Amino acid sequence: MSQHSCMSQDNEQAKSAEERAWELVSQMSLAEKIGQMTQVNGGSHELHQAIREGLVGSVLNEVNVEEVNELQRVAMLESRLGIPLLIGRDVIHGFKTIFPIPLGQAASWDIDAVERGAAIAAAEAASSGINWTFAPMIDITRDPRWGRIAESLGEDPYLCGVLGAAMVRGFQGDRLSNRESIAACAKHFAGYGAVEGGLDYNTANIPENELRNVYLRPFKDALDAGVATFMSSFSDLNGVPAAGNGFLFKEVLREEWDFNGFVVSDWDAIRELTVHGFTANDRDAVREAVNAGIDMEMASGLYREYLPELIAQDYVDEQQIDNMVCHILKLKFQLGLFDNPYTDPGRFPRCVNEEHLQAARAAAMRSCVLLKNDQATLPLSKEQLDSVAVIGPLADDGYEQLGTWVFDGESHHSHTCLQAIHELVGEDLEVRWARGMETSRCRNHDGFHEAVQIAEESDVVLMFMGEESILSGEAHCRAEIDLPGNQEQLIDAIAATGTPVVLVIMAGRPLTLQNVADKVSALLYAWHPGTMGGPAIADLLFGIESPSGKLPVTFPRLVGQIPIYYSRKNTGRPASHDSITHIDDIDGKAAQTSLGMSAFHLDAGFTPLFPFGYGLSYARFEYRDIETSATHIALGDNIDITATLHNTGDCTAEEIVQLYVRDLVGDVTRPVKELKGFRRIRLKPGESKRVSFNLHTDELAFYNRKMSLVTEPGLFHAWIGGSSETELGTEFEIVASPQVAD
Ligand code: NOJ
Q: Which of 91, 162, 451, 500 could, after both became Cys, cross-link 436 (CB 3.0–4.6 A)?
């Protein structure tokens, strides 16, 4: 079915859902309306009675299917109007079958795999009666200290938007009423990823222009993909906390974007408006939130407590309440809940079945990024080795490899790296194993001796280091983002044996690896890879497949470089390799000077450790012959930008070909590079392929000083390559009048 016919069917369905919702609203008492706007946490004693009285529209965190069915029964048969419940849950990167953390999935740059992962998560969650997930999280963040970077899709609005839309399609399927579809929620609107200092819940100050060009963009993509709901952010945006921010929800989301789903607050976020210092008390907080456009309140019960009097005193208009209730009821109709709100798990595919596991394995394999591979240390050859030492606290820990936001995944389903290596090598190799450290944060040396000993006895060492899952995610931010505990010391001790070291990192964020990258022969970044992380990583280490992931986020050398991201502005004094001075090279008593100086740190230079888009392969990919289909194009036209990709290596592999563009002059300054397209291409040894990207001039539009979305005529540079540092470039010009185009 084409996307278009699919959307028009949904529109038809939405229209009748809306009519049915209005009919129902007209029969509701005020208390019942406010009930629909109230979401409560599952498990309380009073819940059944509240549902019976029509005081609850949605329940979150109830995953026992018998209990969910019972709640639905009470709602349908024992409440006056028989309105079913939305059952919400954080299904973030899998339900029972856990996929890589979202940041890892983003490293796959694989639209189909990301969509499939969300579809599997939806089917498994739906088998427990869940009909609404609080995902995807599409906050742009450029700060790896922020623990929630793990849940994000990285630093780039284009990549995040494309993959976020894929998740929406995966969760929602082609119809919300399908048995295996659940409603998605684009969160957190907006600006949460820009919290100061990478500190969770902190303030974000983002100029409107930057907000629109960077932070709001993925949300617009999710909306265009048909996302059913939005969630407001906890954070304060430019002085107005999101849960009370009418600019975000009324002006942008409803008026400009014409969103016709509903908005839920974050947990207790309306009560927190007062803690922010935005309102004086709970009552005012409710008034601000409703008037800002937050349709449903999560967890605190404040709407029930204060809306009746606010409406009676005309602080809130009942017509507005009717609209909000209609938004909520419409989704219940679209999901088909009025026809059948009950779940029969027997009618769903079994959770954690073989097909789901294989999809999770493929996703994990594609999400790993090879950052270093000196002298082709990888792939390992079973034939050429006699023994391997497996060392590290994350080599055989089925729980930690699952990552953050895993409420329902179970570690006994996990296949660890140690297990997978044993399975893969069988009797061909001797596998020696030492944990080395009890946990990633361990600060003693108790396990070092044994680890060093097996490293000395083996041909190669595979170290599995990084962060436990609890070190990232909500409320788990770090001010230092190096390897925690004594890990660097353990790596030093193992490297000192002289046995080649392959370092596999599992982590919820980019870590600063400057101190260890030089000490190891190969470095594979596996994020938290999920249930099937072990077999996926083992396949890569032994060359069953080549690594193909690319970084969705820049890796700083040092924390002090943050924020560091590829699509920065040029500044008036951009740094270059020959314009920088190192702190150790400054003469004693040197006179103050800024002449000829540029934007760099004396102790870190200006480049990251690994740039956005970077990732190696066992194949060798070369790019050449970039060209455009025209030197000049008119506004409203398209241009093709094409280059040749050549596999000059000796294995078949996939490469993610990336297109970047720079608009040289803008009404507001434009980034030095912006991702505008990418494609996964599989090539055999010796094979080459012309790879073409078609760009419409609308795709080069940005918000100018007047907050208008414009494409400006002028000169553009374009590059194609295997990372954001590609230098294979060309240029073209956009002209205002069609007559001048060639
Ligand atoms: C708080 C988090 O910020 C949000 O992302 C999540 O969906 C809700 N709690 C519900 O658990």
A: 451
Delimit the domains of the chain by residue range: 362-541, 621-740
Separation of alpha carbons 106 and 315, rounded Å? 44
Least Cα distance to 672 among 595, 596, 597, 564 occurs for 564
Q: How much is the pTM?
A: 0.97
For 618-649, what is each residue's pLDDT tens digit? 999 999 999 999 999 999 999 999 999 999 99
pLDDT on residue 12: 53
Determine the distance separating the centroid of ligand 1 and the alpha carbon of 741, expressed in angstroms: 50
Q: Measured at the alpha carbon of residue 256, what is the angle toward residues 254 and 260, in degrees to the nearest 5?
A: 30
User: To test the ligand 1 pocket, which listed residue (59, 474, 476) has its Cβ within 8 A of the most ligand atoms?
Assistant: 474
Both structure tokens of 157: 């609005």
Going from the Cα of 461 to the center of ligand 1, the distance in angstroms, rounded, reads 40
Rounded distance, CA 626 to CA 239, Å? 46
Distance CA 113, CA 127 (A): 21
- With contact defined as beta carbons under 8 Å apart, do 183 and 133 qualify? yes
Q: Which one of 61, 92, 267, 300 would you pick to mutate in the ligand 1 pocket, going by the greatest count of ligand atoms within 8 A of its CB?
A: 267
Dihedral angle, C-alpha 601, 605, 611, 612, nearest 10 °: 20
Considering only CA atoms, which residue is closest to atom 4 of ligand 1?
Answer: 266
Stated as kind and residue range, the H or E segment containing 593 is none
Q: Tokens for 70? A: 């019972």
Q: How far is the CA of 491 from the centre of ligand 1 (A)?
A: 37
SS3 of 507, please? coil
CA of 475 to the centre of ligand 1 (A): 11
DSSP state of 592: P
- The CATH superfamily label for domain 362-541 reads Glycoside hydrolase family 3 C-terminal domain (3.40.50.1700)
CATH architecture, domain 621-740: Sandwich (2.60)
Ligand 1 site, residue 267, Cβ cutoff 6 A = yes
Nearest CA to ligand 1 atom 7: 134
Of the CA atoms within 13 Å of residue 257, those in its CB half-sphere come to 25
User: What single-letter DSSP state applies at residue 137?
Assistant: B
Note whether 686 and 647 are within 8 A (CB). yes
Catalytic positions are 266
d(CA 715, CA 731): 7
Tokens of 494: 């193992």
Structure tokens belonging to residue 367? 């999400």
The 3-class secondary structure across 233-269, one letter per residue, is: CCCEECCEEHHHCHHHHHHHHHHHCCCCCEEECCCCC
Q: Residue ranges of the chain with pLDDT lower than 50?
A: 1-8, 740-742
> Whose structure tokens read 């945006």?
237
What is the pairing mode between strands 714-721 and 729-735? Answer: antiparallel
CB of residue 192 inside a 6 A radius of ligand 1: no
Q: What's the start-to-end Cα distance of the chain, in Å? A: 37
Nearest atom, ligand 1, residue 135 CA? 7
d(CA 39, CA 258): 24
What residues form DSSP beta bridges with 431?
A: 388
Residue 156 CA to residue 122 CA, distance in Å, equals 26
Task: Judge contact between 517 and 557, C-beta under 8 A.
Answer: no
| Measured distance CA(641)–CA(740) in Å, rounded | 20
pLDDT at 14: 56
Q: Let me know: does 210 contact 242? Beta carbons within 8 Å.
A: no
Ligand 1 atom with the smallest distance to the CA of 134 is 7
CA distances from 2 to 103, 174, 331, 338, 522 (A): 29, 10, 23, 28, 44
Which tokens hold the place of 459? 């041909």
**What is the C-alpha to C-alpha distance for residues 319 and 60, in angstroms, rounded to an integer?**
27
Query: Does ligand 1 have an atom closer than 6 angstroms to the CB of 187?
Result: yes
Burial of 543 (0-12, 13-18, 19+ CB in 10 A): middle
Backbone angles phi, psi at 224, to 5 degrees: -65, -25
Q: Which residues of 114-127 are buried (b: 16+ CB within 10 A; e: fewer)?
A: bbbbbbbbbbbbbb
